[in-house]
Amino acid sequence: MIEIGLSHYMVLSAVLFSIGLYGVLSRRNAVGVLMSVELLLNSVNIALIAIGRYVGGAGATGQVFALFVITVAAAEASVALALLIAIYRDRGAVDVESATALQG
Amino acid sequence: MPPSADFGLTLSFYGLATLTVVSALMVVSLRNIFHAGLFLVLAFIGVAGIYLTLNAAFMAAVQVLVYGGAIAVMMLFAIFLTRNAMTQGNLSGRFQAPAMLAALLIGVLFSYAFLMANWASGKGAAEYLPPEQVADALFNQFVFPFELASIMLLIAMIGAIVLARTPGRETEDA
Q: What is the DSSP string of B65-83?
């Protein structure tokens, strides 16, 4: 069997990113869009930690960056869910196609 | 490293990668948003396992705590609070094909770029990074962003409270 290396993790990250991107583009439920965004952020974290593990001289930088990504993701999720609940209260739905107040 | 350890790593990587990718596919394709949320938790746990295969034990613990715990619970609460959303699934029709095309294109391009890239791998790479070293980097080299992150979390918390508050009940006498 081939030894697992950086390229394995990077391809896994790319696959996870494209799945998340598909979810962001195709989900109609805003909660579904948020869940797909979390998948995107997770794929980026895999790439960061894999590079920190395999690329010379990276040290702990990859893991520290991934920590910050997790922190920002938590903040993003809380604000987005609050926004979503406000939209739901206003319109009775969380359909991304019904939120057209800012559409020109 | 003995060959058996290598084999174990290979096996666990492929197992966890399959678990993660299948769960992620379920997250974006299931019509029932509640089931999608449960698969999202599974995907988070799979990613935590991937971190373990990368010798990043601290990150795996943080992943389980923050994603598998906090963010997953918040997502499920959002699903429950927006109840009529349970029946809505994916966009039907016109955006489905372009979305799939864009995702495939990005995935292939990224994979190609990552495989072709000339990584400075090998020498100097940290086989195992103990959590002490991560903490050392976090509280010395990156202490300013660390403090900024706490301010950002505070702002996000206040923002979330302001956004989710029931309008017209500012005097809160009930």
A: IIIIIIIHHHHHHHHHHSG
